[in-house]
Design brief:
By secondary structure, the chain is of the alpha+beta class. It has four domains: 39 residues; 106 residues, Elongation Factor Tu (Ef-tu), domain 3; 64 residues, RNA polymerase II/Efflux pump adaptor protein, barrel-sandwich hybrid domain (OB fold (Dihydrolipoamide Acetyltransferase, E2P)), CATH 2.40.50; 134 residues, no CATH class. It contains six helices and 15 strands. The chain has a six-stranded antiparallel beta barrel with strand order 1-10-14-12-11-15. It has a four-stranded antiparallel β-sheet with strand order 2-9-7-4, with no helix packed on it. A four-stranded antiparallel β-sheet has the order 6-5-3-8. A hairpin with a 6-residue loop joins β11 and β12. The radius of gyration is 52 Å and the shape is rod-shaped. The two termini are 98 Å apart. The model has no long low-confidence stretch (mean pLDDT 83).
Length: 376
């Protein structure tokens, strides 16, 4: 038998046992290695440590002193302007964005024109009423009195002429027609005197009361029309103002989720169009477990540590405790934490302006408290 044949026969005989032995060795090595305890990864930063001998800890969330104000619009429409961006500081009443208002502005112009027409009508009615109240005008009396004197003089002349004709004893010397004309002339003159005297009396009496009442009623109607037109103008101005969305507080724009040309729906939306809040000062909303809530006393000092860098901290000033225990919303991921945990929310104000943090950032809060034995 050749050497090559001997080697081939040996390989066929021992290959499978050798592979089995190697697999068993690898399995044993893997089991031994996995049984070793894994070393925990070192923390990215040192955890915060309470500065008090006795304290209550809680997870805190930085928020504006006014809380987050979700800005919306009562009037739906296309956004024409956005005047702010995230991070801007705004005063109370500053315009944040505007809804297209061309249609309502055109209506406002029409109503303002109607108001001017109503005012002009009121001035006309008022002038007519005043002119009636001023009657009789002093300058109109003398001409009418002169007409009365003229009529009386004409009557006296006619009566004198008639008297001369009556004085003639022999009536046959007179024409009967001419005599009749003289008598008619006297009657005409008397009627003329009565007419101008009546006109003078009417002029001195002034305006007729029903006419005055009618003129006063026209003035009142004109005033009512002005009030109605002013109300229409004011309503249009309010509609224009409603399309300019303004900040309700002085603070900072925290988020902008609207752009020019987008449609802004009215009412409550899932994503606020803008978020505004007062950040002078900023507040920390700390969640204290209900089992530890009894240890928190009003006015207790506290300190907040920034997560990720415990060297950044700030003292906190007590503001208030929310009087209602609520379910915990922000879970820490601790395996011992119960989902049904309820917490007392304690509000603190950040003192000073050296704490570099953002609204919505989480902090670790430690609240000074008495020892458990003394608290009991």
């Amino acid at each position: 038998m050749s050497i090559a044949s001997a080697i081939s026969a040996a390989l066929k005989t021992y290959t499978i046992p050798l592979l089995a032995i190697a697999g068993m060795g690898m399995a044993a090595f893997t089991v031994v290695k996995s049984a070793r305890p894994s070393l925990p990864a070192p923390p990215l930063s040192e955890p915060a440590k309470t500065p008090y001998a006795h304290s209550v800890s809680g997870a805190g969330l930085i928020e504006p002193s006014t809380q987050n104000i979700a800005i919306g619009t009562a009037v739906p429409g296309v956004v024409s302007r956005v005047l702010v961006k995230a991070g801007d500081t705004v005063e109370a009443g500053a315009t944040l964005f505007a809804i297209d208002d061309r249609e309502i502005r055109a209506a406002l112009a029409s109503r303002e024109a109607t108001l001017e027409v109503r005012r002009a009508g009121h001035l006309t009615a008022q002038a007519r009423l005043e002119s009636l109240r001023q009657l009789p005008r002093a300058e109109t009396i003398p001409p009418m009195e002169a007409k009365v004197a003229e009529a009386r003089a004409a009557l006296s002349d006619a009566e004198s002429q008639l008297a001369k004709w009556d004085a003639v004893e022999d009536k046959r010397a007179l024409s009967q027609d001419l005599f009749n004309q003289r008598r008619q002339a006297v009657q005409v003159a008397r009627a003329r005197v009565a007419s101008v005297e009546a006109e003078l009396a009417l002029l001195k009496a002034g305006a007729f009361k029903p006419e005055l009442d009618a003129a006063a009623a026209q003035v009142t109607e004109a005033q009512a029309q002005i009030a109605s037109a002013q109300a229409d103008v004011e309503a249009a101005r309010i509609e224009v103002a409603r399309r300019e969305i303004r900040s309700p507080v002085a603070g900072r724009v925290l988020q902008v989720n609207i752009r020019p040309g987008e449609f802004a729906p009215a009412g409550v939306v899932q994503t606020p169009l803008l978020i505004v809040g007062g950040v002078t000062p900023m507040h920390v909303r700390c969640d204290v477990d209900e089992n530890e809530a009894w240890r928190v006393k009003e006015g207790s000092p506290a300190v907040a540590f920034l997560r990720g860098n415990s060297s950044i901290k700030t003292p906190l000033k007590f503001v208030r405790c929310e009087p209602y225990i609520v379910p915990k919303k922000s879970l820490t991921g601790d395996s011992a934490e119960r989902v049904d945990t309820r917490v007392l929310q304690v509000i603190f104000a950040i003192e000073g302006d050296t704490f570099s943090a953002y609204v919505g950032q989480q902090v670790d809060v430690y609240i000074e408290s008495a020892p458990r034995e003394e608290a009991k």
